[in-house]
Every structure is written in C-alpha cells, then in structure tokens.
Amino acid sequence: MADVRTTMSDELVQNEMSYQAMSGEAMHWFRNQTTGYRKLMAYYNCAMMEVTTKLNVLNEEFSLQRDHNPIAGIKNRLKSFYSIQEKLARRGLPLSTESIEQNLTDVAGVRVICAFPEDVQMIEDALMKQDDLVLLQRKDYITKPKANGYRSLHLIVEVPIHLAREKRRMKVEIQLRTIAMDFWASLEHQLKYKKNVAEEEWLLRELRECADISAQLDHRMDEIRRRLQQPR
C-alpha cells in the first residue's frame, strides 16, 4: 500500500498538468493546508486498511469452507486532491477538510474483484453482518447496469479507525465486481478517452454489446462451477 506521506509530497509533481487547471484559490488552500489535508488522507488510508483486513480475513475463512478463494484481488486508491477540489467545486461546496469529510463518500476506495457473481453476494452479506460497519448507501449496478453496460456493486460504509487518543468513523466506498466486470470496466475507461464524435455512437454500441457478452460469460462460468460442486 502506498505511503500517504510520500504520495502527498509528490502529488504536485505527478499531477502538474491537472494542477495548472486549478484555480488560484484552490492552489493557495492546498499549499497552506497541507498538514491538515495529509492528516485527513492518513485517516482515509487507515480506513482502507481496516476494510482490506476484513476482506482478507473473510477470503481466508471462505477458502477453508468452500475450497476456493472468492476474492481474486483487492485494489485500494485515494482520490487525488485535484479530483477532490474539482468535485466540490462542481457541486458548489466549500473547499475545506471538514467539507471533504462531510460531503464526499468516495475519497477512499476499495475495489474487490471476485471470481464468480455468487462470490460478490457472499462477500457483501458477510461484510454487512459485521457490527462495526455501517452501510450508508448501496448501488447495485449488477442487477441494474448503467446505460453503457457498466456492472458493479457499490457500497458506501463507515468504518471505525482506532487512533492513539481517539476513535474516528471514516467513509469508504467498496466496489465489488467479478473478473469479467473489472476487465470490461478497465478497457472501457481507456477507450472512452480515445473516441471522436464520428465514432461515439459506434463505440457506445460496441461497449454495451461487450458488456452483455461479459455478463453471459459470468453466468455460464457460475453454472459450470455449480455443476462441478454437485455431489457425483
């Protein structure tokens, strides 16, 4: 997992072109509030570690019970300062650490990549039974995919982090999806920035068709797994 302090100290250099697009006010705030901002990002980083630990424990338990690891991979990410200030500005919200914590739910993100669709539901059920997690929002894009074909289950949760002198509850967005869903989403993210106006309608149609094929693959692989698990 990336060290938050290193990430923040290098952020202006890594995102130079993005920061050139920021308002002078946002740049001034960032330069003068770096300590408080880093502290908040460290809290979000701790929250991601808490969620990741829970997921790894569940994965280990289910691997013993079911002879396979339902989680194929876990990816963590902290939203960049440029993305944070841009989202707040778009919503007409003030730029402050308090505003970030109160108004944004996706600063800390944990993506859980499962082997099969059934594993997505199993992991969600197990997480929601843990009494220290509070579910704030659930968006099921698997049962009801987005118009472009995007499929994933999004959970916004509050998780406690235990610091030296206090306990804080931090918001984390958890995305659960299958390997096929993640493969499609990764390619769609790359391709949508390469389209031109003439190709837009064709690209949207192709991506939607590929999403449907991906969903069919998930369904068929789930059926194969169920058949192989049946007693002979």
> Distance N terminus to C terminus?
44 Å
Overall body shape = flat
Order of helices and strands: HHHHEHHEHEEEHH
Strand order of the largest sheet: 1-2-5-4-3
Strand tally, please? Answer: 5
- CATH superfamily label: Beta Polymerase, domain 2
CATH class: Alpha Beta
**Category by helix and strand content:** alpha+beta
| Rg, Cα atoms, Å | 20 Å
Largest sheet: 5 strands, mixed
Note poorly predicted spans.
Answer: 1-19
β-strand amount: 15-25%
Mean pLDDT: 85
What does this molecule look like?
With 232 residues, the protein is α+β, with helices and mostly antiparallel strands. It has one domain: Beta Polymerase, domain 2 (2-Layer Sandwich), CATH 3.30.460. The protein has 9 helices and 5 strands; from the N terminus they run H-H-H-H-E-H-H-E-H-E-E-E-H-H. Helix 8 packs antiparallel against helix 9. The radius of gyration is 20 Å and the shape is flat. The relative contact order is 0.11. The N terminus is likely disordered.
Features:
232 residues; alpha+beta; Beta Polymerase, domain 2; flat
Quick structural summary:
Helices cover 56% and strands 19% of the residues. The protein contains nine helices and five strands. A hairpin with a 4-residue loop joins strand 4 (153-162) and strand 5.
